Amino acid sequence: RDALDRLGDGDLVLRARLMARLASALTPATDPRGPIRMALEATAIARGLENPRDRLEIVFTAMAALMDFHDPWHRAEVNREAEELALRLCDRPKLARIRARLVTDYLEQCDTNAAWASVQAFDDVARELGQPRFLWISSGFQAMRALLEGRWSDADRHHARARELGREVPMARLPLAVQRLQRMFVSTRYDQLDEIVEEVLGAFPRVVAELGMQWVFVAMVHCRRRDLAAAKAVLSRVDHDLILPGGDRALTLPLAEFAVLSGDLERARRAYDKLSTEKERSGHGGMITLCCDGVVRRTLGLLASLLGDHEEANEHFRRGVVKLRAMSARPALAQTLYDWAACGFAWGDRENAERHLAEARALADELDMTGLSDQIAALEVSSQATASRPELASRDLVPPGPPPPAAENDGLSFSLERAGELWLIRSSEGDFHLPDVKGLQFLHHLISQPGRDVHVLDLVTGTGDRRAAGDAGEHLDDTARSQYRSRVDSLREELEEAEAFDDFERASRLREELELLTREIARAFGLGGRKRRAADSSERARTAVQRRLKDAIQRIARQAPRLASHLELSIRTGLFCTYRPAGLDY
Q1: Residue 300 to residue 291: CA distance in whole angstroms
Q2: What is the pTM of this model?
Q3: pLDDT by residue (tens digit) across 283-303?
Q4: Which domains does the chain show, CATH number per domain?
């Protein structure tokens, strides 16, 4: 900054080079708009210069501040010019980086044909260079494409190859960790989620972690689990006022999803206004993620539905589905069709909703998306039981509009009573008995205390004493944690120094020690940085309670579908479970 101030308008080339370097150095920033303005000015100067080397150097450097943030159509135009310059000057390393950037540009535009052509062009120069720092990206791109198209085995094979090639490349850690997390999200199979999140948290570079970006990813995990209390706690670390006006979609989209799930109308409106300027783009996570998750239109459809604009939501879903078909993005297509169907049932558009849900079911079953298949099955039960009451659409997706007024009793009342080895369920749909199962015990406990949050360990033990579940204390005490983290900071500084001096042997040794320490700290902490107990059974209890409540409601659904639908809508699960009825008589 001092150099720019002293230089003034004298040396135009030097001024452009300084601006490009400064914009790049300031990225990532909590508010990227300043670096973007500086980078755009530098590229505008460069494109008017005669010397091709000066033009390439300035544009190449400045584009680092524009990737992930600026308009992808303009970026692609400038990157294509830079590609021609790099070819003319035979600068192969820059050519590889520029082609990788073009992959991102085209994916954000939803132009998968151009993106995959750029992947092939990148692979050609990466093979020519033969360096792991480029080769791992080729395999990462192939894994990204396979994930987008729902080819799970191909995705796993290419991802494993990328990890092998990128083992000694520090910059590969975060993109590959996030891509592994995306594999769980896209396939809706969450069995290894905690382990993967720990890897992601350990992979965030210090400069990015200081901005708090990692907590948005953690909150997204909680949102997918429908644990809104945990998501809210994590997001309290994040400054929404900085991310929503200027952040990239990798951060804005999860915040929008949280706003939808929590029914936060104010933040939903802000997210809608921000994303409306990017409505023709994909959900590509940018250079740092190697992931492409559907299209922005899907999120806009959910936001518009929450905000009560059903016509606008319908148009977003329709256009989003058209884009996803053209992209061959089958998993994202299945998810978007499900979202569209759930909102359609809420609006009373039953005919179209059933058609969308049928296609979503076929895709989810074909792609073995077990989590989505479960959501679809629940929505089918709910929609059949509430055909005459569209306001009771499936809660498992998202509130389909502004919170409705309390439902009328409409003759529906019920009770659960223990009768020896059976449970007697009395309802306006008839009385019936069910065998004693844990899920019915949990259900009775919750509905006997409407509106009260009950911890899953209290449900499982039935004692109110969570220690009965087997908590054996913390993995590490405070002193040990402090010593571990101090050593991690020291190792990171030593590693940066070793890499700067190309001391590969020392860097490899330091990296190995750093990974061991990072894993130990990750074991001692759970999601959101909370201290983890050595025998912590909360997560196991959460999964068991959720599964058994679902089983109990399914048993009830065979005899009383309307009651089952009400319970599905009113029982909130997570680490704390609650029965929150909407004006019904219990």
Answers
A1: 19
A2: 0.67
A3: 887 777 888 889 999 999 999
A4: 2-193+205-211 (1.25.40.10), 194-204+212-404 (1.25.40.10), 414-467+540-579 (1.10.10)
